[in-house]
């Protein structure tokens, strides 16, 4: 499986319509590859709620002038972009199609924060949601348990935020292009104790596209894996490790035929900064109990041993829901092909990790530059 | 005095969950109803300052593990003195779980924070206050247990989970 092109819009508070953001990403990918797809996989997490449009694959297919190719919509909450890539992969691997445009987008900054929070909360188990549990609330309970176990510290959490903002400051596609300080993070207002505002990703608009092809290019989609867990957080045996990430990583490495030691750059789903630290261990990039040391030693910075979230991650690049999983892969492609101006790292193999809902439907994607 | 909590047990794997569900989340097997003793230990908790629509901050939420392993979400008056592993009593009013032992004034404030029409919330608050009064009366004037959730009081003769 090969990547012919990858494109995205700047994430952030955007004045453009969702259709225009998605068109910018789609046209960018088609121009780069100099071809049209023979199938379209579209993902938007909640267009019915945010922009009042349904039948979205046909809607965007028509808008893009691609109404004559099969179009389908994929949705797995906040990992929808990665899920759409998986569907595109399957369409080509099955022999149904040769060139699939995988396109994700979300537009939500026009809605009020409580409204956005309420819409996103619908990805949570109904019993848990009925107690007012939002994504930050559940993440806070995970963080509290991880702090109590000594898996993370308050300083580690702040350091991840500082690192990701420093990277975002060098990424013209990032929502936040400004650094933050350790003190600034640790004194920002409490959202859900122990999580503060600067531990949480923003609400962003944006779109991203990846054009997959059966024809060899230099950029290989080397492996993809999915992992699931109960919708209900209370059913899980552990609060501090995500089975869905562990299973996804194992499956992706199995498909790729190599292990975590070959990964040289990673885009990790840091919707809440403690998740970056936990994911480094769940994906196998660091052995259990070693991720905090890597944070403290600066191993995850652009100059470090394993640069993590060179784009700025969800924390600084932003989180446009269904576009995010694809934007991670776009960043990897740019990094591996030397096009990540201002934040370029040296790498041949990259890993993207995407969390759906409260880690109910997670994905790990491995991209390898072979030529 | 402690109200039982309705749950479900899988006849195949024995897993107990609450609130009741039809099918075991582990595999497609229909579950049977059980009653779980209303106390447990805190797995994690938070105070939500940015509450979603329908709730007022600060909103205190905890995950509590009940005897037999089922976990539930509950509200509480505050989380300041709370620690992971702390044992708490669970109370229900109209199907909503609350942890800890609470005074009448606390209950009124707490119910006021939940969504719903004012008369409904007043009714819940009164119900809770009445329940508090009677439990104190039955207990010979002492409050229900907070720090020790009943197991040590000799109330629990078995696992705390019973078939209904």
From the structure above, extract its key features.
A: 371 residues; alpha/beta; Peroxisomal Thiolase, Chain A, domain 1; five-stranded mixed beta sheet; 11 strands; B: 164 residues; OB fold (Dihydrolipoamide Acetyltransferase, E2P); four-stranded antiparallel beta sheet; 2 helices; 18% helix; 30% strand
Q: What is the percent of helical residues of chain B?
A: 10-25%
Helix content of chain A: 25-40%
Indicate the CATH topology of chain A. Answer: Peroxisomal Thiolase, Chain A, domain 1
Strand content of chain A: 15-25%
Termini Cα gap of chain B: 18 Å
The assigned CATH architecture of chain A is 3-Layer(aba) Sandwich
Q: In the CATH hierarchy, what is the class of chain B?
A: Mainly Beta
Q: In CATH, what is the homologous superfamily of chain A?
A: Thiolase/Chalcone synthase
What is the CATH C-level name of chain A? Alpha Beta
How far do the termini of chain A sit from each other?
14 Å
Counted up, domains of chain A total 1
Q: Which structural class is indicated by helix and strand composition of chain A?
A: alpha/beta
The largest β sheet of chain A comes out as: 5 strands, mixed
Enumerate how many helices of chain A there are, as a single number.
14
Shape of chain A: globular
Oligomeric category: heterodimer
Task: Explain how this protein is built.
- Chain A is built from 14 helices and 11 strands.
- Chain A has helices at 18-33, 47-50, 56-63, 80-93, 113-121, 126-129, 135-149, 154-168, 182-186, 243-256, 273-282, 291-296, 313-316, 324-336, and strands spanning 2-8, 39-43, 71-73, 99-106, 190-192, 195-196, 206-213, 219-228, 265-267, 349-354, 361-369.
- In chain A, strands 1-7-4-2-3 form a 5-stranded mixed sheet, with helices on both faces. In chain A, strands 8-11-10-9 form a 4-stranded mixed sheet.
- In chain A, a hairpin with a 6-residue loop joins strand 10 and strand 11 (361-369).
- The two termini of chain A are 14 Å apart.
- Chain B contains 2 helices and 9 strands.
- Chain B has helices at residues 104-112, 118-138; strands at residues 5-9, 16-17, 32-36, 39-48, 59-65, 71-76, 87-93, 96-99, 161-163.
- Chain B starts with a strand and ends with a strand.
- With 164 residues, chain B is of the alpha+beta class.
């Amino acid at each position: 499986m090969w990547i012919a092109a990858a494109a995205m819009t700047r994430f952030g508070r955007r004045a453009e319509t969702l259709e225009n953001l998605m068109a910018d990403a789609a046209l960018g990918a088609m121009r780069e590859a100099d071809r049209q797809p023979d199938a379209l996989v579209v993902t938007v997490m909640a267009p019915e709620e945010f922009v009042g449009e349904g039948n979205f694959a046909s809607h965007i297919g028509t808008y893009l002038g691609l109404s004559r190719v099969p179009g389908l919509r994929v949705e797995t909450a906040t990992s929808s972009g990665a899920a759409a890539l998986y569907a595109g992969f399957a369409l080509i691997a099955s022999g149904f199609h040769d060139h699939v445009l995988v396109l994700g987008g979300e537009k939500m900054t026009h809605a009020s924060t409580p409204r956005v929070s309420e819409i996103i909360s619908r990805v949570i188990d109904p019993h848990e949601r009925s107690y007012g549990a939002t994504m930050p609330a559940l993440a806070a309970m995970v963080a509290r348990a991880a702090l109590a176990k000594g898996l993370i510290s308050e300083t580690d959490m702040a350091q991840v935020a500082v690192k990701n903002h420093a990277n975002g400051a060098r990424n013209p596609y990032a929502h936040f292009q400004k650094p933050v300080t350790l003190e600034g993070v640790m004194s920002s207002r409490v959202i859900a104790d122990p999580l503060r505002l600067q531990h949480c990703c923003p609400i962003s608009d944006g779109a991203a596209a990846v054009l997959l092809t059966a024809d060899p290019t230099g950029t290989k989609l080397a492996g993809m894996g999915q992992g699931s867990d109960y919708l209900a957080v209370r059913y899980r045996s552990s609060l501090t490790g995500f089975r869905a990430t562990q299973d996804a990583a194992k499956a992706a490495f199995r498909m790729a035929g190599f292990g975590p030691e070959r990964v040289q750059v990673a885009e990790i789903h840091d919707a809440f900064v403690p998740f970056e630290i936990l994911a480094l261990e769940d994906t196998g990039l660091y052995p259990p109990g070693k991720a905090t040391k890597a944070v403290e030693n600066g191993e995850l910075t652009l100059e470090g041993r394993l640069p993590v979230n060179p784009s700025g991650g969800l924390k600084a690049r932003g989180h446009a829901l269904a576009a995010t999983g694809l934007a991670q892969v776009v960043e990897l492609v740019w990094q591996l092909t030397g096009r990540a101006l201002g934040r370029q790292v040296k790498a041949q193999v990259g890993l993207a990790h995407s969390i759906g809902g409260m880690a109910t439907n997670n994905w790990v994607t491995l991209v390898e530059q072979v030529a | 005095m402690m109200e039982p909590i309705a749950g479900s047990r899988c006849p195949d794997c024995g897993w107990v969950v609450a609130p009741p569900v039809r099918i075991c989340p582990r595999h497609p097997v229909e579950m049977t109803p059980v009653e779980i003793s209303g106390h447990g230990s805190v797995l994690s908790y938070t105070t939500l300052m940015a509450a979603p629509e329908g709730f007022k901050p600060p909103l205190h939420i905890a995950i509590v593990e009940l005897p037999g392993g089922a976990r539930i979400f509950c509200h509480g008056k505050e989380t300041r003195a709370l620690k992971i592993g702390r044992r708490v009593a669970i109370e229900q009013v109209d199907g909503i779980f609350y942890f800890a032992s609470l005074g009448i004034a606390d209950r009124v404030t707490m119910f006021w924070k939940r969504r719903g029409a004012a008369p409904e919330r007043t009714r819940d608050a009164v119900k809770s206050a009445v329940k508090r009064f009677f439990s104190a009366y039955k207990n010979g004037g002492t409050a229900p247990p907070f720090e020790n959730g009943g197991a040590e009081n000799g109330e629990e003769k078995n696992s705390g989970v019973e078939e209904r």
